[in-house]
Design brief:
The complex is a heterotrimer of chains A (296), B (470) and C (236). By secondary structure, chain A is of the alpha/beta class. Chain A contains 12 helices and 10 strands. In chain A, strands 5-4-1-2-10-9-3-8-7-6 form a 10-stranded mixed beta sheet, sandwiched between helices. In chain C, α2 (45-76) runs antiparallel to α3, α4 runs antiparallel to α6 and α6 (155-175) packs antiparallel against α7 (180-215). The chains are: A alpha/beta (296), B mainly alpha (470), C mainly alpha (236).
Chain lengths: 296, 470, 236
Amino acid sequence: MTNETSTESRLNEMIEEPMTSAQENQAEPEITVVRPPGVIETKNMYVFYGDFMAVADVSLNFGKNEISALIGPSGCGKSTVLRSLNRMNDLVASARTEGEVHYHGENIYAEGVDPVEVRRTIGMVFQKPNPFPKSIFDNIAWGAKINGFRGNKSETEGLVQEALEGAALWDEVKDKLAESGYSLSGGQQQRLCIARAIATKPDVILMDEPCSALDPIATLRIEELMLELKENYSIIIVTHNMQQAARVSDRTAFFNVKLNDTGMRTGRLVEYSPTDQLFTSPTEKDTEDYITGRFG
Amino acid sequence: MSIEAPERPGRVEDLYPSEQEYIGHLGRRLRKAAVFRLFCLAMLSIAVLALATLLYTIINDSFGLVAIVNENDPEGIVAGLGHDPEEVGLENLEYDELVGLLEGTVSSGVGRRLERDQRFYEDRLVFESDATWAEICTSDAPPSGCTLGPRGQSDILALVFERVVVPDVIATYELIPSLFSPEVFEEEVAAAFEAGRFPDHTPDQAAIEWRSWFNPTFLTTPQNSTPEIAGIRTAIIGSAWLVVITLLFAVPVGVGAAIYLVEYAKPSRLNDFIQTNINNLAGVPSIIYGMLGLAIFVRVLEPFTSGAIFTDGVPPSDNGRTVIAAGLTLGLLTLPVVIISAQEALKSVPNSLRHAGLALGATRWQTVRSQILPVALPGILTGTILAVARAVGETAPLILVGAASFITTDPTGPFSKFTALPIQIFQWTSFPQQEFRHIAAAASLALLLLLLTLNAAAVILRNRYSRRAE
Amino acid sequence: MTGIRDTNIHFHQELEELERKVLSMVDRAEQMVEMAVQAVTSDDVDLAQRVVELDDGIDATYSEVHQDWTSLMARHQPLGSDLRRMAVLIQLNVTFERMGDQCVNIAKIAQFNEGLPRVERICEQIREMGDLVRPMIRTAIEAYVRGDVDEARLLPAMDQPVDRLNANMYKETVAVRDNPQLLEWATKMLMVSRALERVGDQAVDFGEQTAYLITGERAEFDEYGMARPIDDSQLD
């Protein structure tokens, strides 16, 4: 009997004690970076198009040999962030970037940094496959040539083969290297674009919705390829397909559009977590609402 | 309960017509559609009719029956030289024979003048004495014969025709009447003789023969004051020179400007201003360009356009009214059009190619040169050819810049005097004689064929490259 | 954030339907506990038979839920809290089906023990266990429906008296070993006690699932309801 009483009283004590509750778990955690600096790091990056603030205060740390996914509703600025990483945003006349983007520790937006040099080592693959109207061979050799590749004919052929093998396309095109890049199917064209990008020996590959123009089988092949490429490259991918982000990425960043007081819709980083955590128990309510389909 | 006829039906679907009404509506709509279609067809027919009329007029005047009187019959001449007139024509005679004919026919004064314009032989003189020749060639103003090469076969043949055969077309007839009622023409000629219209000739001298004013000889014979033997060779060569100079100027400048405007220029007020001006210049009347050419190329830049700054001694031309001045003027004329069409061709290249190139770490120029230009080239070429085709037909600026309307020597370089096809046509149409009308029509036909060829080339090019790009 | 709009409403409706089915199982299981305890302590074989029949309902729902769950998973690929709810529901499906099976075990013992002499003390203790277990099930359902982790954390403490009574049952059985008929009866009642103890554990498990659903962390409750996070790094 005494046992039970003491247990009960202890029980009562327990109930009074403050315990970690559901609310506390979902309080505002800071997005502190405790990982070592990755291959690309953005520090308080803002991107403006004229007066319009497209993306505000983005601080992300992309890891080496990892696949990082950027997800979010349309207009949340994920593509803008991606294009800022290799200064492709410079091509838009009204675009302006503030803050810093560090690539292996160097700020690529510093004075005197030539975007041409940045883009050699940070490659990009686009949403709609865009091979050049040249032969398959020339598609890949051209990128090498303009970057000063000094190899002779057989060395160039070796480079092209290596790139095509790396993109899991070699077996399908090895007998028709002289044919036009346009003679390939959509999925093959996209793999050709990947081969073209890796031929210049980058160490980061940016992919802007690379599968959205492809059928499901081609999509899966590209996803498989990404997982292979991860060994040698760091990959950052923008996708509007949550399941794709869940399948391929190691870490996922969720962006959302926030209306500020003046009615401007600015994109902000909401959460950047390991993928399995983000998709099973995200820390932010915004993320939870987005991935369960409850958003306004 | 209020009894009120509802003005509008309750449900929105009821605002649609009923089946019956719809059928009625449909009939009306279809009839209206048919009427509009017919109207557009009628408009097309009017346009086609106008073009057909134009073509008809030109062709009609280019061929037909002529009543021709030769002072010396070609057959007689040929026989006189010992050949069989059945087998040998004047055009088959040897050069020496032809020169001999001239020698025997023209006066020495005329012969010397001809020789001073252009020699007959490289090594010997025909009319002039060696001493006199040396003297005039070393004087302050040597005639063109001193520097030009000897005359060619077709040149001599033309001279023989002009001076020895001396054909005289006394009446002409158009193509369609010639085909369908040739006897009417014969009656007219006979009636004209009876009326005493041709006091110098007798009816039996007049031969009625078929003549195509547009024939190969016409294309290879130089200009002549006698319409029967005049040709458009000088004009064609002049036009060709103009096309070349226009292209050499307008293409690099125009395409280069277009590349800068499309690929490099950032949007700004200045660039908008430049673009607007280029667009407007494309529509400026060609005579304004003529005035510009006259003022700048002919007058201000005379040392350059006459060739004076390139030669120490005598400049090729005594004033700035040369091929190069006209070519540059036409070049300026076509420049805005070339820029605009090159811009269109460049803009039609999808941006994805530019992004792909730049994303690989290429510079703008590398991307433009290797990826964008090859794709845009067919469009640029097409636009250029069409612009040049337009320039070929321009008359007003050439008149101002000084295309000679009577010049018998072919232009030998950019600093020569020249004439052009449209100028020639313009000049010939201003003469009253019937024959000039015919050769003007023949020259128009030649111009039309040239334009047709240029346009066809543009279309073929465009089709070939657009098929390749797929 | 203004106006949350559910753009995934069809899935969420189906999910709620699935949840209803699963909860209906545990509702029924609670009823069955009451009936089974009554049957085995008052020698009521008809009541026992009703318990067995009720279990058929649970088994049918179990199959349905399994099928619906698989279909929902294939068609919607849920994420976040929806995914956790799905994970929890499939576990609970099994748990409640087993609860039903335990009640059937008790009912079968009631049928088996028909006509045998009873020891009132033992029957009292069994009734007490039933009276302790049923509120546990209620509490677990309330905690789940209200999403209240604190309430779920009460469960381990509520389970302790059940465990003690179960442990005590052995002594009571041994006490009547001299009477062979009583012994037979008492041995069977020992099994009833064990079954009830298992139902109690299953109710605690229900609570742990609820805590995972709300917090996103997988943890086992210790005896005081404190979450002990499961250390995955020790696995494989």
